[in-house]
C-alpha cells in the first residue's frame, strides 16, 4: 500500500532536495582564495581571466594551453600545504612558478615574452600583494641571479640563498600587502622576482613568479586598450596591479591615468585608496578592475534565492 505523503514529509523532501544545491554554492565561495602579487604583476594574475590584454598575450595563451585549456581563474589560490619553510626540498626545480601543482603547470613554461613590469636597478620598489583573505605570515622575495636565462626553466640555483627582502606580518591595507624591496644595481634585462608567502595562520605556503625587465632589457609592448577606473582587488580574478602586459611601461614614464612602478619619495606613504598599480594596468589591459568579494556576493545572492524559494515551496506544500 502506498505510503501517504503528509505536509511535513513534503517539506522535509523539499529541504533535502535543496540542500545539495546550497552546499555547492557554499563550497564555491572564496574559502580557498587568498592572494598573489599584482605589482609587479605575477604570471598567474596576468594570465587570469581578469588579466585584460595580458591574458591575451602569446605567453598566457600558451600557459592556458599547457593546462589543457583550463584558465587561471583561481589566481589567488596557488598554495602548497605543510611545506614549513622547506621550499627548496619540496618544490622541484623547473616547477617554482607553479609550486609543483598540476593545475598551474603552464606557468612554468620557459619563455622570454611573459607579461612583465619594468623596474630600475638600484632602487627600492614596493611589491603589492593583493589578498582576498587575510593571513599572518612571512613574505620572502628573491630576484634571479646575474646571468639568469629566461629561455630555460627556473630552478632554485637561479635564486640566491638569502632573500632580497623578508617581512613578517605586514598590515593589509586596501586589499593588499605592501613589501618594500631594494633591487640590486648589478642586474639588467629580464629577470624573475620570486615571492614566497609562508602563512603562520594556516599550514599553506604561496609561490609566485613576477617577470620584470630591469633597465636595458629589450621588450615589446602591445597596443593598450582604453582604460577604465580601477577600484580594488576581488577574489579569483582582478586586473594586474602594476603589470605591463607582454611588455612594460618604463618606470620613468607615466602615461595618462597610470602610476609608475617606482617607490614613493621618502617620507610619503602609498596611496591608501587602491592598489597603486591598478590604474596603470587598467590602461594597458583593457580596463578590467577590482571588485571586492564579487564571487562571494554572487554565491550569497544565489544561496539566498534558493533559500527563499525553498521556504516558499515549504509553505505552499504545508498548506496543501
UniProtKB/TrEMBL annotation:
<dbReference type="InterPro" id="IPR051024">
    <property type="entry name" value="GlcNAc_Chitin_IntDeg"/>
</dbReference>
<keyword id="KW-1133">Transmembrane helix</keyword>
<keyword id="KW-0503">Monooxygenase</keyword>
<feature type="domain" description="Chitin-binding type-4">
    <location>
        <begin position="34"/>
        <end position="212"/>
    </location>
</feature>
<keyword id="KW-0812">Transmembrane</keyword>
<dbReference type="GO" id="GO:0004497">
    <property type="term" value="F:monooxygenase activity"/>
</dbReference>
<dbReference type="InterPro" id="IPR014756">
    <property type="entry name" value="Ig_E-set"/>
</dbReference>
<feature type="region of interest" description="Disordered">
    <location>
        <begin position="218"/>
        <end position="272"/>
    </location>
</feature>
<protein>
    <submittedName>
        <fullName>Lytic polysaccharide monooxygenase</fullName>
    </submittedName>
</protein>
<dbReference type="InterPro" id="IPR004302">
    <property type="entry name" value="Cellulose/chitin-bd_N"/>
</dbReference>
<keyword id="KW-0732">Signal</keyword>
<dbReference type="InterPro" id="IPR006311">
    <property type="entry name" value="TAT_signal"/>
</dbReference>
<feature type="compositionally biased region" description="Low complexity">
    <location>
        <begin position="227"/>
        <end position="272"/>
    </location>
</feature>
<feature type="signal peptide">
    <location>
        <begin position="1"/>
        <end position="33"/>
    </location>
</feature>
<dbReference type="Pfam" id="PF03067">
    <property type="entry name" value="LPMO_10"/>
</dbReference>
<keyword id="KW-0560">Oxidoreductase</keyword>
<keyword id="KW-0472">Membrane</keyword>
<feature type="transmembrane region" description="Helical">
    <location>
        <begin position="296"/>
        <end position="315"/>
    </location>
</feature>
